[in-house]
User: Which sequence fits this backbone?
């Protein structure tokens, strides 16, 4: 009996990538809600959680599983342009393992903006100087206000990039018949035998230890800031 063209179930995303992805989605939503409702008591912990997630994901991009590593999915301009030409085709690109070249740009943009956002938040100062980031005392009031303004500007930029990201995922689902959401939940993607190749997965225990170290350092930074 002939095999179905996409009958092979292959694990393409490790648990660390998936948990960080959805963790960022949740913390971004909580951060948005909390700042909109003046709940700095929630906004600050959400920001610290986001910082730990982003820093971990950046480190995991160098030491993590194959599909998590920047070296495996970040490509040059020629590859990006070549892939962009296939975007108008109704089908295709479903055989790629991991992020495609355009998706890589989205990952880098989101991680870069999120990192800048949490770092600016550490130094941000509100108008009366009461609700400020844990490192605001290290900079002048004017510098802290500038950080706060850039923090707000970064939030607007993040909403735009996130919206583009969501629209792209929906485009892949509806037009190209390529579900990117399911694999980011289960870690599994169906691939044809002709394109399947082993994906090396790093132990989840290594991810857990690394995240614990990163989270611990973030906790120390915000609870015992330098004077």
Assistant:
């Amino acid at each position: 009996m002939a095999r179905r063209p996409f009958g092979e179930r292959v694990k393409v995303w490790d648990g660390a990538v998936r948990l960080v992805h959805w963790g960022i989605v949740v913390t971004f939503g909580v951060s948005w809600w909390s700042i909109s409702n003046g709940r700095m008591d929630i906004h600050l912990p959400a920001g610290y959680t986001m910082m730990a997630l982003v820093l971990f994901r950046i480190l995991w991009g160098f030491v993590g599983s194959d599909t998590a590593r920047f070296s495996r999915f970040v490509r040059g301009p020629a590859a990006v342009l070549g892939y962009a030409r296939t975007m108008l085709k109704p089908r295709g690109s479903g055989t790629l393992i991991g992020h495609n070249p355009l998706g890589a740009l989205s990952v880098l943009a989101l991680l870069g903006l999120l990192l800048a956002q949490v770092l600016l938040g550490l130094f941000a100062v509100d108008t009366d100087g009461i609700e400020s980031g844990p490192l605001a005392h290290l900079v002048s009031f004017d510098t802290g206000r500038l950080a706060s303004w850039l923090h707000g500007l970064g939030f607007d930029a993040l909403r735009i990039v996130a919206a583009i990201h969501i629209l792209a995922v929906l485009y892949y689902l509806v037009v190209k018949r390529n579900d990117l959401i399911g694999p980011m939940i289960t870690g599994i993607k169906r691939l044809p035998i002709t394109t399947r190749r082993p994906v090396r997965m790093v132990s989840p225990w290594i991810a857990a230890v690394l995240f614990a170290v990163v989270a611990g350092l973030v906790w120390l930074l915000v609870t015992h800031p330098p004077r």
In short: Confidence is low (pLDDT under 50) at residues 1-5. The two ends are 71 Å apart (CA to CA).
